[in-house]
Amino acid sequence: MHQGLKEFISENRELIQSELNKHLANLDIPVRLKESMIYSLEAGGKRLRPVILMASFRNYDHEINRVLPTAAALEMIHTYSLVHDDLPAMDDDDVRRGMPTNHKKFDEATAILAGDALLTYSFELISNDALLTDSEKVRIVQILAEASGPKGMVAGQILDMEAEKKDATLEELETIHTLKTGELFRFAIRAGAYLGGAQDKQIRHLDQFSRYLGLIFQVQDDILDVTGDPDIIGKPVGSDVSNEKNTYVKLLGLDRAVQKKNDYVDKAKKALREAGAETSHLMSLTDYFSNRER
Amino acid sequence: MHQGLKEFISENRELIQSELNKHLANLDIPVRLKESMIYSLEAGGKRLRPVILMASFRNYDHEINRVLPTAAALEMIHTYSLVHDDLPAMDDDDVRRGMPTNHKKFDEATAILAGDALLTYSFELISNDALLTDSEKVRIVQILAEASGPKGMVAGQILDMEAEKKDATLEELETIHTLKTGELFRFAIRAGAYLGGAQDKQIRHLDQFSRYLGLIFQVQDDILDVTGDPDIIGKPVGSDVSNEKNTYVKLLGLDRAVQKKNDYVDKAKKALREAGAETSHLMSLTDYFSNRER
Question: Which chain B residues are within 8 Å of A142, Cβ to Cβ?
Answer without folding.
Answer: 124, 127-128
